[in-house]
Design a protein that fits this description.
- By secondary structure, the chain is of the alpha/beta class.
- The protein has a domain of 196 residues: Rossmann fold (3-Layer(aba) Sandwich), CATH 3.40.50.150.
- The protein has eleven helices and seven strands.
- Strands 3-2-1-4-5-7-6 form a seven-stranded mixed beta sheet, with helices on both faces.
- Helix 7 links the parallel strand 4 and strand 5.
- Helix 7 packs across helix 9 and helix 8 crosses helix 11.
- The chain starts with a helix and ends in a 25-residue tail after the last strand.
C-alpha cells in the first residue's frame, strides 16, 4: 500500500473518531463475540496488544477477563487514541492517586503506529487481540510476521476480520455504475489461515458467520460507514463525488435487494486464533536452521 493511500485511511479514522462509538454497533458486537472465543482458553497474559484498538471499546472486555493484565492499545489514528485514553487513561486527582497505589489495576498504554510496522520489542506480548482492523492492512502475511515477532513463544493471537461476502449487496449494486470500485476486496478465510502458518503461527483455527444489518434507505448505510471511517476504498476508488446519474443507478440497483421494506447489508465476519510458534524464522520469512557439529574420538580437529 502506498503512503498516499495509508494517509487517506488514517485521515478517515481521524475524522470519524468523534462519531465512531455512536455508529459502531456492528464493531462492538463483533468484539463481544470475539471475546466469547476466549471461553475455555487457558491463558494468563501479563501484556496484551490490542492491535487496531480504535476508541478502546475492547479494553473493558479484556479488563473483565484479565484483571491483572496491562494493555497496549495500538492504532494508526491519533484521534482514536485520544478517545481511548479519555475513556481508559489514568485519571487525575484522587482517582489517579488511588490507581497509582493499586498496582493490580490494569493500565491502558496508547501507541500511535501502523499495524504493518509494529514499534514493539521482540518476544514481549503474551496475547495479541485484533478486532476488525486486519482488513485495512495491505500485506497480511507481512503483518502476521510482525505480530509473530513481538509475541512470546506460545502466546495467543486472536482476531476478527471481514471476509469476501462483506457488503456484497453494495458491491453488486455499484458494479459498472461508473467504472470505479466502491467496496474493498476482503481476504478469504482459507488464505488468512495460510498466511498465519507462513508467518510462523501454529494450530490456526478459523470460523465464519454472516451478519446482516438492515436500513430504510441506502443513505443510512453510507452515513454509517462514513461515521466509523470505513468508507475509504483501497483500490480503484473514485477521486471525487459520484455524479447524479451514477447515484440514481446505484439506488435503483440496490433496490433489487429490498425485502420486507428494508435494505440489507451483509457482513462476512471471520474469527481466528493461532499460537505463536518457535522463533525459527527471520522477519522476511526465511527459516533459521541450527546445525550442530560433533567430533569423533581420534579425529583431528
Amino acid at each position: 500500500m502506498d503512503d498516499r493511500l495509508k494517509r487517506a485511511i488514517r485521515r478517515s479514522f481521524e475524522r470519524a473518531a468523534p462519531t465512531y462509538d455512536q455508529a459502531a454497533f456492528l464493531q462492538q458486537e463483533v468484539a463481544r463475540r470475539l471475546d466469547d472465543h476466549l471461553d475455555g482458553v487457558k491463558v494468563d497474559p501479563g501484556l496484551i496488544l490490542d492491535a487496531g484498538c480504535g476508541t478502546g471499546f475492547a479494553f473493558d472486555l479484556l479488563r473483565a477477563r484479565f484483571p491483572k493484565s496491562q494493555v497496549i492499545g495500538l492504532d494508526i489514528a491519533h484521534a482514536m487514541l485520544r478517545q481511548a485514553h479519555a475513556r481508559h487513561g489514568r485519571p487525575n486527582g484522587w482517582r489517579g492517586l488511588v490507581s497509582r497505589l493499586t498496582p493490580s489495576t490494569p493500565r491502558f498504554a496508547p501507541v500511535c503506529a501502523d499495524l504493518e510496522r509494529l514499534p514493539l520489542k521482540n518476544n514481549s506480548i503474551d496475547l495479541a487481540w485484533s478486532s476488525l482492523a486486519l482488513q485495512w492492512v495491505d500485506d497480511l502475511e507481512t503483518t502476521f510476521r510482525g505480530l509473530h515477532r513481538v509475541m512470546k513463544p506460545g502466546g495467543l493471537f486472536l482476531f476478527a476480520s471481514f471476509g469476501p461476502d462483506t457488503l456484497k449487496e453494495l458491491r453488486a449494486a455499484s458494479s459498472g455504475v461508473d467504472g470505479h470500485h466502491h467496496v474493498n476486496q476482503f481476504v478469504d478465510m482459507h488464505d488468512v489461515g495460510d498466511a498465519l502458518v507462513h508467518a510462523g503461527f501454529s494450530h490456526p483455527v478459523m470460523e465464519m458467520e454472516h451478519v446482516t444489518l438492515t436500513y430504510a434507505e441506502l443513505s443510512g448505510l453510507l452515513r454509517e460507514l462514513k461515521a466509523i471511517g470505513a468508507h475509504t476504498v483501497k483500490r480503484g476508488a473514485r477521486g471525487g463525488l459520484m455524479g447524479k446519474a451514477a447515484w440514481r443507478r446505484l439506488l435503483e440497483n440496490y433496490e433489487r435487494f429490498r425485502r420486507d421494506g428494508r435494505l440489507p447489508a451483509t457482513y462476512e465476519v471471520v474469527y481466528g486464533h493461532a499460537w505463536a510458534g518457535a522463533k525459527d524464522r527471520l522477519e522476511d520469512g526465511r527459516q533459521i536452521i541450527q546445525m550442530r557439529m560433533a567430533s569423533r574420538k581420534g579425529e583431528i580437529r
